[in-house]
Amino acid sequence: MRDVAERAGVSIATVSFLLNDTKPVTATTRARIEAAMAELGYRRNVVARALASRRTHIIAMAYPALDHKFGFSAAEFFTSAADAARKQDYHLVLWPVGNDGTELKELVGQGLVDGVVLMEVQLDDPRVTVLQETSTPFALIGRTSSLEGLAHVDIDFDRTVEDAVGHLYELGHRRIVLISGNLTDPVFSTYGPYVRSESAYRRVAAEYGLEIVVMESSGSTQSGQEAMAQLVEAHPDTTGVLIVNEFAALGAVAGLNRLGYKVPEDISVLPLLMAPEMAALTNPQLTIMRTPGPELGQLGTESLIRQVEGADPLPPQLVPAKLYPGATVAGPRAPRSKAGAGRRAARKARS
Asked: Which are the contacts of 268, defined by CB distance < 8 A and separation ≥ 6?
């Protein structure tokens, strides 16, 4: 710091004010100090700073990567969270730890971070108990079944499903099926997005007087293809499909094409949670309910940093996914004839 001060022609105290953001420094002085730091190769000693302040200015985002694939939607959460942290002089690290809380407990016990943002939240999430027991500040991007005293932001699944079903209904669809996750899998039995999406669909479909049909998918492109094969066999009069998992949605379009169905002429496909970059991977490009990843990544990070710094808490917020145009949704055409369905089934059998 003394070398920097001498090179910039300022006092050591002024350099300290800039580095620690304790007092305002004029733009001209800031430029001189930063230039001197660059010329001398000066870097802050993060370890010393952490020892002195008992804070690392590092926060972690816990993402159970072994159970949840990385897609464009997840990337939007990460990048917006990292940007929000950087703007407040924090660094964000990604912890791909499991949902059982074991590895998370080991990591937070080492004092490596000031707090944790939890993603892919279960209704009964063991990680919450770990963080509470270790008195670690944390915020949820998602919701547990009991939210008392928990800082959280999440997708508004009720509004998202209402808008999705309403859009298809206005176009004339009366046979709308939900492809959700596999809730019999112990890993996903209480996974918030699957549970809340299905609950909202059942409520909204009943309000519209629609038949309620829910099918499962394991969340892969292959399972999306398999779900479509089961769908056209068991529910051949379906005209619209809502899909929760973005990877299954990619497989669904490919599966329908292989079975001889045209999208959206025969069946409209509308993923409930997806990023535009992912939607562009299909032909035709998917119409989607756009995941509010940029907003929620920022809000979740801000909520955590407020806790760390003892500021007023950020109120819980729910943000709906919004309809994003594509080419996989249209009004239903006249019902397919039994002969046409028979020809498709015959082609499928021959393949």
From this structure: 168, 171, 173, 239, 240, 241, 287, 328, 329, 330, 332
